[in-house]
Amino acid sequence: QNRHYYIDASKSFQKASDLYAHISDEGNSEYHFELKVYSHYYYYQCWECLAAFYYEEHDVDKAKKFTAQSIIQLEKAISLLENIPQTFKLEKLKTIVDYLPSWKFFLKLCRSRDYSFEARKWWDKKKHVKALDYYRRMLPILEELKEESKEFDPSYERAATGNYFSCSANICIAIAKTIIDQNGSQKLTLTENDGILFIGNAYNAYILGQSARVANPDWDQYPLLITQFANYIKTYLKYNKKHWPAFFIEFENDQE
Questions:
Q1: Biggest CA pair distance of the chain
Q2: What is the number of alpha carbons within 13 Å of residue 227 lying toward its C-beta?
Q3: d(CA 19, CA 124)
Q4: What per-residue confidence (pLDDT) applies to 191?
Q5: Where does residue 32 rank: exposed (0-12), middle (13-18), buried (19+ CB within 10 A)?
Q6: How far apart are CA 243 and CA 254, in angstroms?
Q7: 72 Cβ contact partners less than 8 Å away, ≥ 6 residues apart
Q8: How far is Cα 108 from Cα 240, in angstroms, rounded to an integer?
Q9: Which of 64, 78, 120, 234 is least surrounded, with the fewest CB atoms within 10 Å of its CB?
Q10: DSSP character at residue 92
């Protein structure tokens, strides 16, 4: 319900970017160079907020469009820092240069989002196996980002770890939903073998969702996902009591 704050934030970042760009054009010192870099960075933030808003609105095309714009601006900011004029004194630019590693981290994260957008697009179309393909492509990138995040502020690691577990959960639930798609059943009345596969993946999604929440308790969407995964399991068990003995045997060693 607070997603419209993204729009307000985007407008603020745009104003800051325009102001910094205007001032940077008035001179050619380290100070003006720094403002020019920040103007691109703030425009990156502007587009990021819009991309986040439309992603939450499930408008994937607009989310992709604004993410592409954010990448352009962040690339420009990084390029400036990697090509500082030799006439400038680096000690006067140390603060902004120190941001370079984290901005490269952000850039890698932005570039990975195309897989996330494609996954959401196919999920919304109930093409769960196609969504699965893109979640699987995204997971190794998120694993890399999870490790790289340890070089920065702990909040980066918290968010990156949550993203990794969340994507892992989405892979499991996409498998479970694909099993349902193949059976064409709205009440989850599956064969015993398919039921075991469904329950196993839905349960793994539930556990991974819990891990995502523990990793990043600040993200309020994780409890909603956990509840959804639990409901999948409850609904299946409700309509398939005849398979309960097989489930007890299959999962008897799993105390949870």
A1: 79
A2: 5
A3: 39
A4: 82
A5: middle
A6: 17
A7: none
A8: 45
A9: 234
A10: G
